[in-house]
């Protein structure tokens, strides 16, 4: 039996478009809620869609229900707005009351609350990997280059830093060079983190970007994401490579990402943090 229509809450980037294509190829109708300022509604002109500002959640829920949609995927690049800029409609205001203090927590705390409220509204939230199984890389070396001893030490240091960040729901990434933390990811995102670290690099072996899932994170939404643009930022920052969480990081356009890393001489490693620490401990 073919599942019913799929709702797609779309942020920026190509992942939401790939989700839509995969769902349609599987025979599902797709209705996209395109968040203005995050995604370009023109990219969804081939799909039934509704372009809304972030505060018009009530309008979106009404549109989804009118189409008989019960399953949602929430994915794509997003920028967290200030609370005062949301201008909620009646439905969004009702949701914010239910979300409560979580509106002022980190991204994971907020998204968990949003998912809970949407579930209370009768929707099932699907992980993006339910439709795109090849997005999450397994553990191992993904490209032609391997990390050296200095990079392995920096990855270990990066794991400790990112886990500490995640425990307080701040960010999913950090850049470490020669044991020094050049930068940590907060609200600015990975691209801005790399741009900032470009001016902070030290002489000698380049640093590493480590990106991990936050402890206890709901893996249906907001997984760490890298792609060709991340590789370009890592090159500009003078990094030696990237280590990301295996089975927990969205790898956008894997062939292009790996090819870009190979061409730049960067290693690209998917790790299971606990196993990595055990295998590489001095």
Tell me the number of helical segments per DSSP (H or I, 4 or more residues long).
9
Mean pLDDT: 88
Terminus-to-terminus distance: 54 Å
Helix content: 25-40%
CATH architecture of the largest domain: 3-Layer(aba) Sandwich
Radius of gyration: 19 Å
Order of helices and strands: EHEEHEHHEEHEEHEEHEEHEH
CATH homologous superfamily of the largest domain, by name?
LpxI C-terminal catalytic domain
The global form is elongated
Strand order of the largest sheet: 6-13-11-9-7-8
Number of strands: 13
Give the CATH topology of the largest domain: Cytidine Deaminase, domain 2
Strand content: 15-25%
Helix/strand-derived category reads: alpha/beta
Unreliable stretches covering 5 or more consecutive residues: none
CATH class of the largest domain: Alpha Beta
GO molecular function: hydrolase activity
EC number: 3.6.1.54
Pfam family, one: LpxI_N
Keywords: Hydrolase
């Amino acid at each position: 039996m073919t599942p019913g229509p799929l709702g797609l809450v779309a942020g920026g980037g190509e992942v939401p478009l790939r989700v839509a294509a995969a769902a349609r190829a599987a025979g599902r109708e797709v209705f996209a809620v395109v968040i203005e300022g995050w995604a370009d509604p023109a990219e969804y002109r081939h799909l039934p869609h509704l372009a809304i500002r972030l505060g018009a959640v009530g309008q979106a829920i009404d549109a989804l229900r009118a189409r008989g949609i019960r399953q949602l995927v929430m994915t794509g690049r997003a920028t967290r707005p200030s609370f005062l800029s949301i201008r909620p409609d009646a439905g969004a205001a009702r949701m914010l009351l239910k979300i409560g203090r979580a509106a002022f927590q980190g991204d994971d705390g907020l998204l968990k609350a949003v998912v809970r409220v949407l579930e209370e509204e009768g929707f099932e939230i699907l992980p993006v990997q339910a439709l795109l199984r090849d997005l999450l890389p397994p553990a191992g070396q993904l490209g032609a280059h391997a990390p050296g001893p200095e990079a392995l030490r920096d990855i270990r240091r990066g794991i400790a830093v990112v886990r500490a960040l995640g425990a307080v729901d701040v960010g999913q990434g950090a850049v470490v060079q020669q044991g020094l933390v050049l930068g940590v990811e907060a609200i600015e995102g990975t691209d801005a983190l790399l741009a900032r670290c470009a001016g902070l690099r030290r002489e000698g072996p380049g640093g590493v970007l480590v990106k991990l899932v936050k402890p206890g994170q709901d893996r249906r939404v907001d997984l760490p994401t890298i792609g060709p643009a991340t590789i370009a930022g890592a090159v500009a920052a003078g990094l030696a490579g990237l280590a990301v969480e295996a089975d927990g990081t969205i790898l956008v356009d894997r062939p292009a990402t790996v090819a870009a890393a190979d061409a730049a001489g960067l290693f690209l490693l998917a790790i299971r943090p606990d196993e990595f620490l055990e295998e590489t401990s001095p």
